[in-house]
Write a structure and sequence with these properties.
Strand content of chain B: under 5%
Number of strands of chain B: 2
CATH architecture of chain A: Alpha-Beta Complex
Strand order of the largest sheet of chain A: 4-6-5-10-11-9-7-8
Helix content of chain A: 25-40%
Distance between the termini of chain B: 42 Å
Largest sheet of chain A: 8 strands, mixed
Helix content of chain B: 25-40%
Shape of chain A: globular
Oligomer: heterodimer
Strand content of chain A: 5-15%
Structural class of chain A: alpha/beta
């Protein structure tokens, strides 16, 4: 039952030599082989490469080199460029794209000696909240395969939930780490904007996109975040800010911690059953000595409107690079250059991507810039100011990650607006560039629920500490979907 | 703000996206729906608010002007749809 162990337990076994990276990697490859045909978490499985990396990791371990992550396999979201391995980003546009270089995140984790099991499914170009917009088909939620895993990092969250990987990378532009983590019952952290390099991470909305881990616990997330965080001169938006030891502060006491509860996150639209389990989690924090403060984030309702101007505007610019000239899809028999651009893009982008490109193109077009783009940037300031005010009063903010549990496959896929509204609690902090995380609390009717914790810029250590303390008191993060656990084998 | 079929065709052209004639009305409805959602921003007076372009409000840094990586033309062009003599080929632009 290696797949039920924490990263630090696995690491101890690897360091002692009672477990080899090859054994561990093979174990996960067997699980992927057995279960992924049902779940569709992976777009590409890199078995041979993983085993070769595992052999090298075993050599490192035998020499006493490496660190706490050496030898532990992982899954990479298919948005990160992986040298020599297809990087499709959930799109037909990049179905034939073999990346010629590694993203900084990939480079750093390779250097730790973490074998890559494969590339994980996602909404096309990270645009979506259900993983249904992937060219490679929807990923299923391991807790109920008739339901979505959330998105856009649905492959990452579902793979961790079903323990097909011990840990995975993910990205979050409007909630794409936290929302799937919540719906799949796992733990994910979206770091401060600029904390993790975006080099080699295919851009959707560049002023929002940020990478982080999804894992079974805050402790596991802390280990991985420590390895990927930090300044990168290849990313001009990466920030020069010291990376603390995220595991060192996990056991700090929460006595006197001030937790803000924004009333806007507990209002209309929140499933009462979710409100109830979130309140129970907050009671656990009270028992640990935290103080609860009611706060207000009065511009919360403007976050989705502002996001759906800014993110599409940035995406319309970013995705103009996909022109059928240098890499990616090109249409057959183009009549002329314009026909080549139009049909290559028209044939290879999915519906949601086209919608967002068109909204962004419109918002940035002559005569509309002030009414949409500039207006949204001003709203962005108001939303950011709400958080600045709140953090004068409290250390962290808590609330539900999502207003409902996982919805059914197909339920919202033809109604883009209702899909957008499902991100009501996660989007605001991306506008403000703040770090946030989601961790599982008590389930509702067998489906996972996530508690969201938000902290001030660069306070990932605080978030991980607050989440870890809850996970020391409760066992919700150890719940696993029985159908994929091989429990009968002991 | 509601978009017409003609608007959608113009936007699609600006974005260099071919869309099927059968779908234009659906896009007009979808995009109008998004603009209606976005219109909630107009409830707020933002005349005195400074726009926020970036979450960290930092300046772009400069770096030393020195060579860090070499262009590996052959390797990069392996993934191109069509190349010839080290150049990317596209349909003829000038007759």
């Amino acid at each position: 039952m290696m797949h039920t162990k924490s990263l630090s337990e696995l690491s101890t076994a690897l360091q002692k030599g009672s477990l080899s990276s090859v054994e561990l990697t093979q174990h996960y490859l067997d699980r992927i082989e057995k279960y992924d045909s049902v779940l569709n978490c992976f777009v590409t499985v890199t078995a041979e490469q993983a085993l070769n990396s595992a052999k090298q990791a075993d050599v490192m371990l035998a020499k006493g080199e490496g660190n706490a992550l050496t030898g532990i396999p992982l899954g990479q979201k298919d948005i990160f460029c992986t040298n020599g391995v297809r990087t499709a980003c959930g799109s037909k546009m990049l179905d034939n794209f073999i990346a010629p270089y590694n993203a900084t995140v990939v480079e750093k984790l390779n250097a730790c000696g973490m074998p890559m099991l494969g590339k994980l499914n996602m909404d096309e170009f990270a645009m979506g909240s259900s993983t249904e917009s992937s060219f490679y088909g929807a990923t299923k939620n391991p807790w109920d395969t008739a339901r979505v895993p959330g998105g856009s990092s649905g492959g990452s969250a579902a793979a961790v939930a079903a323990r097909l990987v011990p840990i995975a990378t993910a990205t979050d532009t409007g909630g794409s780490i936290r929302q799937p983590a919540a719906l799949c019952g796992v733990t994910g952290i979206k770091p401060t904007y600029g904390r993790v390099s975006r080099w080699g991470m295919i851009a959707y909305a560049s002023s929002f996109d940020q990478a982080g881990p999804i894992a079974a616990s805050a402790e596991d997330c802390a280990l991985l975040l420590g390895a990927i965080a930090g300044f990168d001169e290849k990313d001009s938006t990466s920030i020069e800010h010291d990376v603390p030891n995220y595991t060192a502060g996990l056991n700090d006491s929460l006595q006197g911690l001030k937790i803000g509860l924004p009333r806007e996150y507990f209002g209309e639209g929140l499933d009462p059953a979710i409100a109830s389990v979130i309140n129970a989690a907050i009671d656990s924090y009270k028992a640990m000595g935290a103080e609860i403060v009611e706060i207000s984030l009065p511009n919360t309702h403007l976050a989705i409107p502002a996001y759906y101007v800014l993110a599409p505007a940035e995406c319309s610019s970013n995705l103009s690079r996909f022109d059928g000239v240098r890499y990616g899809y090109r249409c057959k028999n183009p009549e002329n250059l314009d026909d080549m651009y139009m049909r290559s893009r028209g044939e290879a982008f999915g519906e949601e991507v086209k919608r967002r490109i068109m909204v962004g193109t419109y918002a940035l077009s002559a005569g509309y810039y002030d009414a949409y783009y500039l207006k949204a940037q001003k709203i962005r300031r108001l939303i950011s100011d709400d958080f600045t005010q709140a953090f004068k009063q409290v250390d962290v903010i808590m609330g539900p990650t999502t207003p409902t549990t996982a919805f059914k496959l197909g339920e919202k896929s033809n109604d883009n607006i209702s899909m957008y509204l499902a991100d009501i609690y996660t989007i605001a902090l991306n506008l403000a560039g703040l770090p946030g995380m989601s961790l599982p609390v008590e389930a509702v009717a067998g489906l996972p629920v996530g508690l969201q914790i938000i902290a001030n810029h660069f306070e990932e250590g605080k978030l991980l500490n607050v989440a870890h303390q809850y996970q020391q008191q409760t066992a919700w993060h150890q719940q696993m979907p029985a159908a994929f656990m091989d429990i009968d084998k002991g | 703000m509601s978009l017409t079929v003609k608007d959608v065709k113009q936007i699609a052209h600006l974005a260099r996206l071919s869309i099927d004639d059968d779908n234009v009305q659906t896009y007009a409805d979808n995009l109008s729906g998004i603009l209606a959602l976005v219109a909630q921003m107009n409830e707020v007076d933002t005349d005195a608010i400074e726009p926020m372009y970036h979450p960290q409000e930092v300046m772009q840094r400069l770096r030393d002007d020195k060579v860090t990586e070499q262009v590996e033309r052959e390797r990069f062009q392996k993934i191109a749809p069509v190349t010839e003599a080290g150049l990317y080929l596209v349909p003829k632009v000038i007759e």
